[in-house]
Amino acid sequence: MTPELIARYDQRVPRYTSYPPAPHFKPEVAAATYAAWLSTLSPQATVSLYLHVPFCKELCLYCGCHTTVARSYRPVAAYVDCLEREIALVAELLPSRMGVTHIHWDGGTPTILSPEDLRRISSALGVVFDVRPGAEIALEIDPRAITQEHVRALAESGLNRASLGVQDFDPKVQETIKRVQSFERTRQVASWLREAGVSGINLDLMYGLPYQTVESVVRSVKLALQLDPDRIALFGYAHVPWMKRHQALLPEDALPDSIARVKQRDAAAATLIDAGYVAIGVDHFAKPIDPLAARQGEGRLHRNFQGYTTDDAPALIGFGTSAIGSLPQGYVQNAPTTAAYLAAVMDGRLPTIRGVALTDEDRLRRTIIERLMCDFSVDLNQVGLAHATTAPDFSRELQAIDDLAQEGLVTRDGLAVSVPEDSRALVRNVCAVFDQYLNTVAARYSQVV
């Protein structure tokens, strides 16, 4: 890709972790709708669970998550009480003690919970749900905010995959983004996890942060490789100060431009591939024996709110502030502020405040976008047949695809669309062609690269 092409197409479009994207959720789909959807789940179906913990001990300036700083444990303890109550509220609506194949804890910092409270919530889930043998139980970890007792509690609760947040090991970058974390500390936590039997170790890295260079990003990648992770997520920093005001404290003149970001991304990716990792979608890398790599090879990789996943359960149930759930009928989201979430749950109500009911065309377009994000190719005719429906008239979309093909971003053979390897950083632009909702509301997204 030429610098001119990168600059022209480094637009702000959705990350496509859902379709329709979250800015298109409506208040008409709220608690009553969610309750009805939960009650109609098939008793034989499996589900996945997502738990959001919206607290941190300090705020990292790059953060785009729904989180606040907790100066004491009191608000965290109150939140744990409500999280347990929300689990019970949902359980009353389910048709059975449903099987669970994936559990994912995110935040914030989930390990801001005490070891006892981590055990308590895990136990509450085990009472309500049938957590299947072999289920993936994953948790996002800030290595600065975890103890060996936390690790023991998590291991006893079945944790088998941990994602360690790193972002960057360069001291100047760390000081700028207010996340000072030594390599030795990160290595110590990884060692604790492995000693406790947590075999799946992921690392999260970033490019596009202030003062990062190609050389510094590659150094961070090489240090990360010394920890022998199973997976590495390589995310581009999303600078959205209109949504996250603390990001305005970062020095904007030190942020790399689009071309520099692509060079950082490409150099980091090349380093990982040279080390034997397989590129998974646009921002993940995994060892060849990892289930993500196997699923990608089979064309059965999925993408959800946590990124690329092997999870193919028909429903994802979210718990906690701002948590998004996905059910066969559509998406739902909990109240985005902890105060509103606590008020609803303490009143005995589901805290769901918005969502969207999917149409047949939404489902078809969602599949098209997911396959592009996962496989970098899609056959529109095959997708239409799989959905047992006549595909919509894609003449407008195909014209747009042909325009992108003139730029070298895609190739098209009839109704088969593919993204060449050297253009995959811009795959979200290709997905946006099939997005009927884009530009229908005043939403601002992160840049493509």
Automatic annotation (TrEMBL):
<feature type="domain" description="Radical SAM core">
    <location>
        <begin position="41"/>
        <end position="283"/>
    </location>
</feature>
<feature type="binding site">
    <location>
        <begin position="108"/>
        <end position="109"/>
    </location>
    <ligand>
        <name>S-adenosyl-L-methionine 2</name>
    </ligand>
</feature>
<feature type="binding site">
    <location>
        <position position="140"/>
    </location>
    <ligand>
        <name>S-adenosyl-L-methionine 1</name>
    </ligand>
</feature>
<keyword id="KW-0004">4Fe-4S</keyword>
<feature type="binding site">
    <location>
        <position position="63"/>
    </location>
    <ligand>
        <name>[4Fe-4S] cluster</name>
    </ligand>
</feature>
<dbReference type="InterPro" id="IPR013785">
    <property type="entry name" value="Aldolase_TIM"/>
</dbReference>
<feature type="binding site">
    <location>
        <position position="167"/>
    </location>
    <ligand>
        <name>S-adenosyl-L-methionine 2</name>
    </ligand>
</feature>
<comment type="subunit">
    <text>Monomer.</text>
</comment>
<dbReference type="GO" id="GO:0005737">
    <property type="term" value="C:cytoplasm"/>
</dbReference>
<keyword id="KW-0949">S-adenosyl-L-methionine</keyword>
<feature type="binding site">
    <location>
        <position position="204"/>
    </location>
    <ligand>
        <name>S-adenosyl-L-methionine 2</name>
    </ligand>
</feature>
<dbReference type="InterPro" id="IPR034505">
    <property type="entry name" value="Coproporphyrinogen-III_oxidase"/>
</dbReference>
<feature type="binding site">
    <location>
        <position position="50"/>
    </location>
    <ligand>
        <name>S-adenosyl-L-methionine 1</name>
    </ligand>
</feature>
<comment type="similarity">
    <text>Belongs to the anaerobic coproporphyrinogen-III oxidase family.</text>
</comment>
<feature type="binding site">
    <location>
        <position position="324"/>
    </location>
    <ligand>
        <name>S-adenosyl-L-methionine 1</name>
    </ligand>
</feature>
<dbReference type="InterPro" id="IPR006638">
    <property type="entry name" value="Elp3/MiaA/NifB-like_rSAM"/>
</dbReference>
<dbReference type="GO" id="GO:0051539">
    <property type="term" value="F:4 iron, 4 sulfur cluster binding"/>
</dbReference>
<dbReference type="Pfam" id="PF04055">
    <property type="entry name" value="Radical_SAM"/>
</dbReference>
<keyword id="KW-0408">Iron</keyword>
<feature type="binding site">
    <location>
        <begin position="62"/>
        <end position="64"/>
    </location>
    <ligand>
        <name>S-adenosyl-L-methionine 2</name>
    </ligand>
</feature>
<keyword id="KW-0627">Porphyrin biosynthesis</keyword>
<dbReference type="GO" id="GO:0051989">
    <property type="term" value="F:coproporphyrinogen dehydrogenase activity"/>
</dbReference>
<feature type="binding site">
    <location>
        <position position="60"/>
    </location>
    <ligand>
        <name>[4Fe-4S] cluster</name>
    </ligand>
</feature>
<keyword id="KW-0560">Oxidoreductase</keyword>
<protein>
    <recommendedName>
        <fullName>Coproporphyrinogen-III oxidase</fullName>
        <ecNumber>1.3.98.3</ecNumber>
    </recommendedName>
</protein>
<dbReference type="GO" id="GO:0046872">
    <property type="term" value="F:metal ion binding"/>
</dbReference>
<dbReference type="GO" id="GO:0006782">
    <property type="term" value="P:protoporphyrinogen IX biosynthetic process"/>
</dbReference>
<feature type="binding site">
    <location>
        <position position="56"/>
    </location>
    <ligand>
        <name>[4Fe-4S] cluster</name>
    </ligand>
</feature>
<keyword id="KW-0479">Metal-binding</keyword>
<comment type="pathway">
    <text>Porphyrin-containing compound metabolism; protoporphyrin-IX biosynthesis; protoporphyrinogen-IX from coproporphyrinogen-III (AdoMet route): step 1/1.</text>
</comment>
<dbReference type="InterPro" id="IPR007197">
    <property type="entry name" value="rSAM"/>
</dbReference>
<feature type="binding site">
    <location>
        <position position="179"/>
    </location>
    <ligand>
        <name>S-adenosyl-L-methionine 2</name>
    </ligand>
</feature>
<keyword id="KW-0411">Iron-sulfur</keyword>
<dbReference type="GO" id="GO:0004109">
    <property type="term" value="F:coproporphyrinogen oxidase activity"/>
</dbReference>
<dbReference type="InterPro" id="IPR058240">
    <property type="entry name" value="rSAM_sf"/>
</dbReference>
<feature type="binding site">
    <location>
        <position position="107"/>
    </location>
    <ligand>
        <name>S-adenosyl-L-methionine 1</name>
    </ligand>
</feature>
<dbReference type="InterPro" id="IPR004558">
    <property type="entry name" value="Coprogen_oxidase_HemN"/>
</dbReference>
<feature type="binding site">
    <location>
        <position position="238"/>
    </location>
    <ligand>
        <name>S-adenosyl-L-methionine 2</name>
    </ligand>
</feature>
<keyword id="KW-0963">Cytoplasm</keyword>
